[in-house]
Amino acid sequence: MMQEGLDDGPDFLSEEDRGPRAVNVDLQTDATLQVDISDALSERDKVKFTVHTKSTLPNFKQNEFSVVRQHEEFIWLHDSFVDNEEYAGYIIPPAPPRPDFDASREKLQKLGEGEGSMTKEEFTKMKQELEAEYLAIFKKTVAMHEVFLCRVAAHPILRKDINFHVFLEYNQDLSVRGKNKKEKLEDFFKNVVKSADGVLVAGVKDVDDFFEHEKTFLLEYHNRVKDASAKSDKMIRSHKNVSEDFNRIAATLYTLGTQDSTDVCKFFLKISELLEKTRKIEARVAADEDLKLADLLKYYLRESQAAKDLLYRRGRALVDYENANKALDKARSKSKDVLLAETSQQVCCQKFERISESAKQELIDFKTRRVAAFRKNLVELAELELKHAKGNLQLLQSCLGVLKGEL
Amino acid sequence: MTYERGSSCDACASVTAALSSLAWLMLQAVAGGGRFRCLHSVVSLGWLLVASGVPWSIVTRATAVARVLGDGSLPALYPAAATAPDWTQAGWTGGGRFTARSAHTASNAASGDPVVVERRPLRSSPSSPEPASLHAEDISTSNGPKPAEISLEDDREDLFAEATEEVSLDSPEREPILSDEPSPAITPVTPTALVTPRIDPVMFERCKEELEEEANGDSFDIDISVSDPEKVGEGMNAYMAYKVTTKTSLSIFNKKEFSVKRRFSDFLGLHSKLASKYMHIGYIVPPAPEKSIVGMTKVKVGKEDPSSAEFVEKRRSALERYLERTVKHPTLLQDPDVQQFLESSELPRAVSTQALSGAGILRMVNKAADAVNKMTIKMNESDAWFEEKQQQFENLDQQLRKLHTSVETLVCHRKELSVNTAAFAKSAAMLGNSEDHTALSRALSQLAEVEEKIDQLHQEQAYADFYLFSELLSDYVRLITAVKGVFDQRMKTWQKWQDAQAMLQKKLEAEAKLQYANKPDKLQQAKDEIREASPGVSVCKDEK
């Protein structure tokens, strides 16, 4: 892990006001710090992202620079945020999911094996499809990583983090290694402890109504989003299956049609064409749904998890505070170690209040962001579906007309 | 054979031709003229062109066996004969024309088009069951028939909401041919029903002109529907009784409209009777729906789950289609068994169709024997046309099977899609509920509602796909099997013919030898045997 001798600790009194949170998940920050992923290269089993920064901040050596990063380095950055006590009061933007090309790689392999059994056209068609799919997954993963970076850059506090700057600037390998087995095991245990703790903490009734309400809300919301996300995934998969079937039927009809040249066969050919076109539309519909709906839900799944984590941390701080209070009382009653107890109580109190304050703001922002993101994506989804449906309708009508005309 | 097939006919049409070929061969055996064969080929060619419209329907109709005509003269009133020279001499009469009912009944409802199965006035003259085929004109008048009606069911989409677009052949057009004039010495014992699956209305007009008879005024429709599946009985002895309603104006039936209750084994019994009567003379008997032990057991046990309801519905529509196909066939309609099936309220229980009965096992053994036979008989296919047709049929069969599986997967996936969409709709609704921002909450609820509607649509589409397309395909796959069965029959009869000939040969030789040896008594015996063998030979030839 790299350490740099830059000034320590983020500056809480940030002069930059919170710029208007952008309505979409990809936040557009002000010109002081703009981050994006300008390029990505997919090698055999890893993806190399080119992170491009444009900044007017003084602590960067240049105004515009690029580095190459891999997925593990993103994860490292995220974990460093999570582990940092200072950020306990903020919703940490969720880490981007691992780029997962396994599914399409498998399919490519299967395709290669089954090459002999299909006709040439079928093979090329399937290959094209697979390539398109691969490309789509690739684009998605790039977008996810970009969103993460932008969220961090937009957050007034997090953007000042050293590690973030290092991440953006250090143009040599960060030598971040993925967690080895021991560390993964540690993580696992930590998670178990944390979830047990979480249950305990959640049981504590909160003083503040706002937080209490948020807690129940978030819990419920998180579960429902999880459910919706899973169901939407299934739906989109079935949709893709249907469109693939169209393809197969079209191919068979085509062979049937080319056997003879009677009218029925011309008919077959027409239908086969129609099916191919409809298939394309259907596939696009499925893809759009995937993009707008499923991704949205997945993202908010992760975000709500992050929000839950925030609440957990706050709850933990509250418990600590109360414990410290109790300890103080005990110390006072015993007149022993009063000073120690007092200081620890002070610390806890401060921590708790700090967290509460920032958490409140964060949660409100979370809600605004969420509403805006849903609105944008749902509207876009509806518009796209409408457009595709119209296109589909037109296609079917014209085909029907042609067929009727021939009869 | 000197015929050129301008456009390659599709295999289904070929069935018609195949059967008509059979008929002609028989005719040839009788008339002893090779030219008829050629003629016949021309005719069948024409038919193929005509029939190329709807493959499906052709198959159902295709059989025709030309029986020996008594006096061998075609009534002069068939102007059609004029276009098909020598037909008259061949004494060829027959041929039925049916509208192709290619659509599923359900689609009938959907489409507004009349689906009228018209038949020839079977009662026009007792001795002339079938009018001469009009195909002759068809051939001459339309060489590139536009399939006015294409199996629109092919497309699952609403494109083909009017799946049945059949041009109903008006009786008047056909009347003339059939007419009840006593003069035409039409005495075909078995009508040769060469079906024209799809005929252009234009062609009909012309036919009308060419035939100057006046219309008879009868309509030849017979409309069958299978409905109201009811469960009768309890436990393992329960069965589903279906109501078979027939609406007809044919005079062979006593009433205009009647309905009876039948159960599945009755249908199977009918089919086996028809098969035993007609298969070996070359008709294609429409195949009955298959027995499904699992499905029926579920129904018997009384589970009310949707899968058993679906099964019953599937079976009901299959039975309906089966009956329709059967009655479309003019010969089969004439059959007393069919009429009894449709009319009489009580039918003797067809026990032999039970899955685990003695008859069932016998059937299986027979099937196995047939399969072995098929492999051993190597028929010298002298008719290259037949060979080609067989090849085409094989191809068609393969393709249809593939298509059928793809369509089944499609149906399956669509059903899945609809289920998943429903689940998502519920989930979105819940999400909307828990969202406290009102506008977003409303939006999400609306999304949920839309998704629900989409789910319904998908379900409907899946059903449409299934009933219109997939079932039809499976029907045709089975029909093709039946056709292949007919091919096999042909092979068998050829084999028998060969055997009979060989036997005859041997007997002749034996007789010659005996003559040499001057054993008068043995000679007499041999002569008797020969006499017995000869008719056997000619019968076999006929059957071929």
UniProtKB/TrEMBL annotation, chain A:
<keyword id="KW-0653">Protein transport</keyword>
<dbReference type="GO" id="GO:0015031">
    <property type="term" value="P:protein transport"/>
</dbReference>
<comment type="similarity">
    <text>Belongs to the sorting nexin family.</text>
</comment>
<dbReference type="GO" id="GO:0005768">
    <property type="term" value="C:endosome"/>
</dbReference>
<feature type="domain" description="PX">
    <location>
        <begin position="27"/>
        <end position="174"/>
    </location>
</feature>
<dbReference type="InterPro" id="IPR015404">
    <property type="entry name" value="Vps5_C"/>
</dbReference>
<feature type="compositionally biased region" description="Acidic residues">
    <location>
        <begin position="1"/>
        <end position="14"/>
    </location>
</feature>
<dbReference type="InterPro" id="IPR036871">
    <property type="entry name" value="PX_dom_sf"/>
</dbReference>
<dbReference type="InterPro" id="IPR001683">
    <property type="entry name" value="PX_dom"/>
</dbReference>
<dbReference type="InterPro" id="IPR014637">
    <property type="entry name" value="SNX5/SNX6/SNX32"/>
</dbReference>
<dbReference type="InterPro" id="IPR027267">
    <property type="entry name" value="AH/BAR_dom_sf"/>
</dbReference>
<keyword id="KW-0813">Transport</keyword>
<dbReference type="GO" id="GO:0035091">
    <property type="term" value="F:phosphatidylinositol binding"/>
</dbReference>
<feature type="region of interest" description="Disordered">
    <location>
        <begin position="1"/>
        <end position="22"/>
    </location>
</feature>
<dbReference type="GO" id="GO:0042147">
    <property type="term" value="P:retrograde transport, endosome to Golgi"/>
</dbReference>
<dbReference type="Pfam" id="PF09325">
    <property type="entry name" value="Vps5"/>
</dbReference>
<dbReference type="GO" id="GO:0005829">
    <property type="term" value="C:cytosol"/>
</dbReference>
<protein>
    <submittedName>
        <fullName>SNX6 protein</fullName>
    </submittedName>
</protein>
<dbReference type="Pfam" id="PF00787">
    <property type="entry name" value="PX"/>
</dbReference>
From TrEMBL, chain B:
<dbReference type="InterPro" id="IPR027267">
    <property type="entry name" value="AH/BAR_dom_sf"/>
</dbReference>
<dbReference type="GO" id="GO:0015031">
    <property type="term" value="P:protein transport"/>
</dbReference>
<keyword id="KW-0966">Cell projection</keyword>
<dbReference type="InterPro" id="IPR036871">
    <property type="entry name" value="PX_dom_sf"/>
</dbReference>
<dbReference type="GO" id="GO:0035091">
    <property type="term" value="F:phosphatidylinositol binding"/>
</dbReference>
<keyword id="KW-0813">Transport</keyword>
<keyword id="KW-0967">Endosome</keyword>
<keyword id="KW-0007">Acetylation</keyword>
<dbReference type="GO" id="GO:0005794">
    <property type="term" value="C:Golgi apparatus"/>
</dbReference>
<dbReference type="InterPro" id="IPR001683">
    <property type="entry name" value="PX_dom"/>
</dbReference>
<dbReference type="GO" id="GO:0098796">
    <property type="term" value="C:membrane protein complex"/>
</dbReference>
<feature type="domain" description="PX">
    <location>
        <begin position="220"/>
        <end position="349"/>
    </location>
</feature>
<keyword id="KW-0446">Lipid-binding</keyword>
<dbReference type="Pfam" id="PF09325">
    <property type="entry name" value="Vps5"/>
</dbReference>
<dbReference type="GO" id="GO:0034498">
    <property type="term" value="P:early endosome to Golgi transport"/>
</dbReference>
<feature type="region of interest" description="Disordered">
    <location>
        <begin position="164"/>
        <end position="191"/>
    </location>
</feature>
<dbReference type="Pfam" id="PF03700">
    <property type="entry name" value="Sorting_nexin"/>
</dbReference>
<keyword id="KW-0597">Phosphoprotein</keyword>
<comment type="similarity">
    <text>Belongs to the sorting nexin family.</text>
</comment>
<dbReference type="InterPro" id="IPR015404">
    <property type="entry name" value="Vps5_C"/>
</dbReference>
<keyword id="KW-0333">Golgi apparatus</keyword>
<dbReference type="GO" id="GO:0010008">
    <property type="term" value="C:endosome membrane"/>
</dbReference>
